[in-house]
Amino acid sequence: MLSRTANSLFWLFRYTERADFIARILDATVRLAALPTSYGERNEWESALEAAGSAEIFREHYGAVTEDTVRDFLAFSPHNPSSIRSCLERARTNARAVRTALTLEMWETINGAWLELKKYRNADMSREDFARFLEWVKSVSLDFDGSAYRTMLRNDAYYFTRLGVSIERADNTARILDVKYHVLLPPTERVGGSLDYFQWTTILREVQAHTAYHWVYRESVKPWLVADLLILNKQMPRSLACCYESLVRHLDLVADLYGRRGPAQRHASDCAARLSAMRIEEVFGRGLHQWVTEFIIDNNKLGSAIADQYLT
Prior knowledge:
single chain
């Protein structure tokens, strides 16, 4: 496979996964912003920017952090390379570049989503309309990934799509954990209070893990157990451990196909081994914010290693 084809497949799936993540962040933020004012002064919309990693770019183009400006920036702004509109546009551009490597179902899903997206404008949306738009974005990502899973041959093209999904999902899960723990809870609100509980529950719902949490732990929502589920539990599809298990597996499949291993395989295996040997007490002992920050940096290094080894 040509490196530019592998690169387009890798980023096609990163962008669709990122669009889904931004939709989930916005959905969670809308829910949290709807809490009664009796919970006190909060910073949900600022936390949404932090979770998306877009706070600096936002300040270059907008003034105050409000629901309307953040919604516009994260969902529709062409100035934001990680907005839902930008992600779906770039996904469709990458899909066109590798049209012959996609199945008909995959192309129709992503092309249809791009055409449908043109109908949506933030200025025309009530909060209820915006919630329906976010549900549509999540369904597009689910349909596209499902069509790939059900229709693609299990060859190098498929392996690079899984690498794109897994590395993007690991980054997204780490960011949402970090923002909840480090940014979202106001300093006047105690950890374990009603607002803290509601925020963790909302985040579990937004990463489709609320039911899974109760299946695994069979008790009320506790921050360290949520972190354990989303960091170390390999049964949870969005956990960091599960993402790295997938990365190791598909990097090994690529290496077996091409007959050569390299830095990407070694880096992914090292990260997966550390996650397998780790306990959640160690994570909190070091500080969740510090640990997650280091993980995001390490995950970016793996993305660079994959790019250097296969995509350039």
